[in-house]
Design brief:
The protein is α/β, with parallel strands linked by helices. It has one domain (2-201): Rossmann fold. It has 12 helices and 10 strands. The strands form 3 sheets. It has a 6-stranded parallel beta sheet with strand order 4-3-10-9-5-6, sandwiched between helices. It has a two-stranded antiparallel ribbon with strand order 1-2. Strands 7-8 form a two-stranded antiparallel sheet.
């Protein structure tokens, strides 16, 4: 079942159910399984970015990565079972990859973070096959609005032919690029944008204490350790609730 939050579909799944959906997809081998991890900032951006909205609607699995989405869904009368973070799902996917013998490619993040994430994941899951871990070269939006990856990085990726591609590039751009290029990577079993997950796994940024995560205050932790993110946090904690209230009570004009 899916819940619609301001036009963005979100699957009503637990973390375990999301992992089982991924397992089924990887074992079926039918097509690249496209996973997105919307949070309030995704929803706010999608209101003005039609292409981004379309990409989110085309995903095979859309998990609620943001406590605000749980609040909004409950406010709409369609509650979601739990928050499923992109960081947690990334780890679960790598655990599953080790179990199933699937190969993984980590692309993006800050300098050195993909490589450190690979080391951490392989230490956690012996036997995990990571066939590529790199920041990559230039990632940019062309004059036609399409996102592009530099030729050298793209060639390395295509030579590796991973079963699973986890991309931590520009927010929004990573999802658009994946959706635009899935048909060019038929060997993929799964693709997912992971945002800043490599910074967590690589040890550059610490996640909020579990107690804060359970209370839905991870945004406050991020503001404390990364005050430069205040605009993004403002959109998630102020703009998003206002949009939900306006939609609920008919103030959309």
């Amino acid at each position: 079942m899916r819940t619609n939050i301001l036009g963005v579909p979100v699957d009503a799944v637990t973390g375990q159910q999301a992992v089982e959906r991924v397992r089924t997809a990887l074992l079926s081998g039918n097509k690249p399984f496209f996973v997105v991890t919307p949070n309030p900032e995704f929803v706010v951006r999608a209101q003005k970015d039609r292409e981004f909205m379309d990409v989110l609607n085309q995903a095979d699995l859309s998990v609620p990565d943001g406590i605000g989405l749980l609040w909004a869904a409950k406010f709409q009368g369609q509650p979601l079972p739990e928050r499923v973070t992109g960081a947690d799902l990334t780890v679960d996917i790598c655990r599953l990859a080790a179990e199933l013998g699937k190969t993984v490619y980590l692309l993006g993040g800050d300098p050195g973070m993909a490589e450190k994430s690979a080391e951490s994941l392989k230490a956690s899951f012996p036997g995990l096959k990571i066939v590529g871990a790199e920041r990559g070269g230039r990632f940019y939006s062309g004059q036609d609005g399409k996102w592009r990856l530099d030729d050298a990085t793209r060639e390395r990726l295509h030579r590796a032919k991973p079963d699973i591609l986890l991309v931590g590039l520009v927010f929004g751009g990573q999802e658009k690029w994946l959706r635009q290029n899935l048909s060019r990577m038929p060997w993929l079993g799964l693709a997912m944008g992971v945002g800043g997950t490599f910074e967590f796994l690589g040890g550059k940024i610490s996640r909020a204490p579990e107690s804060m995560r359970k209370m839905g205050l991870e945004w406050l932790w991020r503001l404390f350790i990364q005050p430069c993110r205040w605009k993004r946090i403002f959109r998630a904690t102020v703009v998003f609730p206002l949009l939900i209230f306006k939609a609920k009570f008919g103030y959309n004009k």
